[in-house]
Automatic annotation (TrEMBL):
It comes from Nocardia cyriacigeorgica. It holds the Pfam family Hydrolase_like. InterPro entries: HAD-like_sf (IPR036412), HAD_sf (IPR023214), PGP-like_dom2 (IPR023198). This is Uncharacterized protein.
Length: 221
């Protein structure tokens, strides 16, 4: 949904310093993983062990992003077509939309809110985040359960579509019980996303009509 201009990796490095008192020497490895796993991997590569509980790690991540919000606004951007895609999907009968991400919920909100994407039609009550589970695929079931509880409609693979731009996003959808529309707006090529199991791969979200057609096709498949 956004390009963060490198601020995401800086956020993990900043959180590592808050937790350990050491500057990060290695770049965090992200690629659609969950925040807790990213932080543990970063610590391991530095020969450190994060003895803090998840809530303390999440707190460090939240503080680290907040002090970088102005930098995010300056260097990042909303990807072309995202707002139009959200608004168009909101007009589709029966569609509800939320966020499924490996980021903790506060940081997911800040990232989207910085670019005026956090409001309706996104329903944050039914999303799933890295603060819910460290296993990315498990987030699909969490979002489905929350959606079913709020809207009194069962959600399963036949009526759940995950949209993502990394192979980890795609695998999470496939393994978690969703259909997947991949968008090649990140660092991974379209063929890589297809090989990961995406039902449909789009080059970007700039063509709203093509995006809606893709959603309808995967729902009907």
């Amino acid at each position: 949904m956004i390009a963060n201009g490198g601020v995401s990796k800086e956020t993990y490095a900043g959180a590592f310093e808050l937790l350990t008192g050491r500057r990060a020497e290695f770049r965090p490895r992200t690629g659609g993983s969950t925040d807790l796993l990213i932080m543990r991997d970063l610590a391991e590569r530095h020969g450190a062990v994060l003895t803090e509980g998840p809530e303390n790690i999440f707190g460090a991540l939240e503080r680290s992003l907040l002090v970088r919000r102005a930098t995010l606004a300056a260097r990042g951007r909303a990807l072309p077509g995202v707002r139009a895609a959200l608004d168009a999907l909101a007009q589709m009968d029966g569609a509800v939309q939320s966020v499924l991400t490996g980021n903790i919920r506060p940081n997911a909100f800040v990232k989207l809110d910085t670019f005026d994407l956090a409001g309706p039609p996104l329903d944050w009550d039914i999303g799933a985040f890295g603060s819910d589970d460290e296993v990315r695929a498990n987030l699909v079931g969490i979002a489905q359960r929350r959606s079913a509880e709020k809207y009194a409609v069962p959600f399963a693979r036949d009526n759940t579509v995950l949209i993502g731009d990394t192979p980890n996003d795609v695998r999470a959808g496939v393994e978690g019980g969703a259909k997947v529309v991949a968008v090649a707006t990140g660092s991974d090529r379209a063929e890589v996303l297809a090989e990961a199991g995406a039902d449909i791969v789009l080059p970007d979200l700039e063509d709203t009509a093509s995006f809606l057609t893709a959603i309808k096709q995967v729902r009907a498949s």
